[in-house]
């Protein structure tokens, strides 16, 4: 989730929240990817989330967009030329070639690395143009990918690419990562600049510390934009926190706790 800020404080949850413009990026084919039994990365969850958004009728309160496929020039904004060239040339057929096999090892590529860079770049462009106050890409957040290699199911770091786009307009960008796993790829990318501040690894004291800590960061750092990586694994067993996250959407509505019937209703049991 990406957001532009009007001041140093957190967004209001009052009546003015209804005025905030939200744009949402969704690629219908994302749920067709399958990485095998037992694999922790399940893109089908993105399709389930979209189905809930539709059945809660939240899409009427947002601008819905289909992301463009990020090309080599877009990905090369962060990743090395050699790595981008390899990603552009590899295919399931060529992967069986011994030469490509050696490159797969070199760049740490396996069969478990999805990419969703176009949506995150699109979110940043919308914010930069002033077309939205909040931009969502639930398929993004691949925070482990490094400049010249894949890591942790991530081979294209859509977050870094989105932040680089935001830096074209905003002097400072705050990156908040609530995933249980450390967003090392993003931190490494901006380690030597004070234009991007990263906050993460807070899962163990999330409930007590998140809001006051981020409030202070906003007051002191005063970012022009905020990027939030919503790794849901940190919310396990802490459903009240999920409600605090939902307020960030600023749609001016409170979804009913009773789940509406939807195409994937049985997936949410018991």
TrEMBL record:
Entry's EC annotation: 3.5.1.98
Stored Pfam families: Hist_deacetyl (PF00850)
Catalytic activity: N(6)-acetyl-L-lysyl-[histone] + H2O = L-lysyl-[histone] + acetate
Cofactor: Zn(2+)
Binding residues for a divalent metal cation: 179, 181, 233
GO MF, one example: metal ion binding
Keywords recorded for this protein, A-Z: Chromatin regulator, Hydrolase, Metal-binding, Repressor
Domain Histone deacetylase: 39-199
Record has Transcription as a keyword: no
GO annotation, biological process: epigenetic regulation of gene expression
InterPro entries, alphabetized: HDAC_I/II, HDACs, His_deacetylse_dom, His_deacetylse_dom_sf, Ureohydrolase_dom_sf
Keyword Metal-binding belongs to the record: yes
Active site positions, chain numbering: 144
GO cellular component: histone deacetylase complex
Gene3D superfamilies, per the entry: Histone deacetylase domain
Family: Belongs to the histone deacetylase family. HD type 1 subfamily.
Protein name: histone deacetylase
Originating organism: Salix purpurea (Purple osier willow)
